[in-house]
Write a structure and sequence with these properties.
Elements: H1 5-11, H2 14-25, H3 31-48, H4 50-61, H5 69-86, H6 90-107, H7 110-126, H8 130-147, H9 150-166, H10 170-183, H11 190-206, H12 210-226, H13 230-246, H14 250-267, H15 270-286, H16 290-373, H17 378-447, H18 452-483, H19 495-505, H20 507-513
């Protein structure tokens, strides 16, 4: 089943991919087995279609479990943290992982707890909170050892070595790497040994111990090739070329870079291609070929700019798709709640029908008794019966109207709450791009060398950005005021200057249209 996930994720539109996944699991009758299978697939999806993985994670949580519901939620939270980490959304990654850790602690789920702690360390390390990451990795290692999971404990120890490298505590990093060598269980695990040798090569490179660094990279390249780890093999080739350049082994360095470029193209890794271009520029510079060095530097810069632009577009697309996933989940929840409300209304109708039937039956019985006991009161009893029926009808109408009004009030309150929440979310989400635009305008202003027209346009752009920021601030304050039922304070507004400012903002467009 896992082999076909890439085709499902990459070859079908989102809705069809979701339907295909649900159809795959439909044949599994046991709820627990089906949910476990879903969460296993979520982890696989995190590598090549994280958004589809997030959607499936929510479906797994919605499965009708008879038991183990809390454990499923803890696993789902941990998986969400992993996916958000791979999407570079670190705040959501951390919040989900911390909740997974809290829930795992309360349930006594040691395996989930250890994984959550290790994943928290990953987030802390990429955010450069190295001391905190060091504590997390050590705690994860201790948990893995307690659970008898020595393989993951060794991985956590490797992470400790990486953090020491980030902290530039190279001697400690080397000491930890030596311990990792001793803990690798399978002596034939070439990929595991290659990773440690590669890290040692980087450490000795930073220490400017180039012969030792070269020896380490020679081992890592050989083992990565043996372990068929193309990604590590390419990275180690690039690093070895860097060391060879320092040792003035230019021809050999060029051979490594040419091979690395071939693998980088096969792996479609633009980042590694940038590293190759940087190495080629460094080698050309060391050989005194300034023109060639400049050409490679320009090629590296162009590709780096392209990568940055692509990453920005990807991040924006991920946020948009994530919003749509959350919106769809909210719609599903809303439909479920609406179904429950409709069922409750139906139950109330049957209850009211039974109550009315009993009342009517009682009234008819009373009328029959009165007619039989006193014929002289027949006309009066008939009139009373008519009055009672009229009152009952009016009562029913009033009851129906009251129920309808209550439902409408509840719906209006819910819509108002949802609108306020959405307004708050949208306002806060607009802050980041506005701050980025403000930062970019400041960079342009600091660069200088602007003609008067450009300076005027830059000033107008800054005013427009500030106005947009003030509008976002006003939206946030408006949402808070509505939630707290605050009283608005009316103040005079200088209309003339406001109109002049707006006219100035659109002056270029007006001139272009001659209006």
């Amino acid at each position: 089943m896992l082999a076909g996930l890439g085709m499902i994720a990459n070859g079908l539109p989102a809705q069809q991919a979701q339907d295909s996944l649900l159809a795959t699991f439909a044949g599994i009758e046991d709820d627990s087995v089906r949910t476990d299978s879903m969460l296993t697939v979520v982890y696989e999806l995190s590598n090549f279609d994280p958004l589809l993985g997030l959607w499936l994670c929510g479906r797994a949580e919605a499965e009708p479990q008879t038991h183990g519901k809390a454990v499923v939620r803890a696993r789902a939270l941990n998986l969400r943290g992993i996916i958000y980490f791979k999407l570079n959304i670190y705040d959501l990654a951390m919040s989900n992982l911390l909740e997974a850790l809290r829930l795992a602690d309360s349930l006594g789920e040691r395996r989930i707890r250890a994984n959550a702690i290790n994943n928290i360390g990953n987030v802390q390390e990429v955010q450069r909170h190295y001391e905190e990451a060091l504590i997390s990795y050590r705690n994860a290692r201790a948990s893995y050892l307690t659970n008898g999971n020595s393989a993951n404990a060794t991985i956590a120890l490797s992470n400790v070595a990486l953090v020491y490298f980030d902290l530039k505590q190279y001697d400690k990093a080397i000491e930890v790497c030596d311990s990792v060598f001793l803990e690798i269980e399978d002596p034939q695990d070439a990929a595991a040994f290659a990773r440690v040798y590669g890290l040692l090569g980087e450490i000795h490179l930073e220490k400017k111990e180039y012969p030792t660094s070269l020896a380490m990279f020679n081992k890592s390249v050989e083992l990565a090739a043996e372990g068929e780890d193309d990604f590590a093999f390419t990275e180690d080739l690039i690093m070895r070329a860097t060391v060879k350049n320092e040792l003035k082994m230019y021809d050999s360095a060029l051979v490594d870079i040419q091979l690395a470029m071939r693998y980088a193209n096969e792996l479609e890794s633009s980042v590694m291609l940038v590293d190759c271009y940087d190495n080629l520029a460094a080698i050309a510079k060391s050989q005194g070929n300034a023109a060639l060095a400049l050409a490679w530097m320009e090629k590296s810069k162009a590709l780096s700019d392209s990568i940055q632009a692509e990453e920005s577009e990807t991040t924006l697309a991920n946020y948009q798709a994530l919003y749509e996933v959350n919106l769809k989940d909210a719609e599903i929840d809303l439909l479920s709640k609406d179904k429950e409300i409709q069922q409750a209304k139906l139950n109330n109708v049957w209850y009211l029908f039974g109550l009315v039937s009993v009342v009517l039956l009682a009234m008819v019985s009373v009328v029959v008794i009165l007619v039989r006991s006193n014929k002289a009161r027949r006309r009066i009893n008939l009139e009373l019966q008519g009055k009672n029926e009229q009152i009952l009808t009016q009562h029913q109408q009033i009851s129906v109207q009251n129920t309808a009004l209550m439902d409408q009030n509840e719906q209006l309150n819910n819509l108002n709450h949802e609108m306020s929440g959405l307004l708050h979310v949208v306002a806060h989400d607009l802050k980041a791009p506005l701050n980025q635009v403000t930062g970019l305008l400041s960079v342009v202003e600091d660069e200088g060398n602007l003609n008067p027209t450009q300076e005027k346009m830059l000033s107008m752009a800054k005013k427009v950005t500030n106005n947009a920021g003030n509008l976002v601030k006003d939206l946030v304050e408006l949402g808070s005021a509505e939630q707290q039922a605050a009283h608005l304070q009316k103040v005079p507004v200088p209309l003339k200057s406001l109109v002049a400012e707006v006219a100035a903002a659109f002056s270029a467009e007006a001139a272009r249209k001659s209006i």
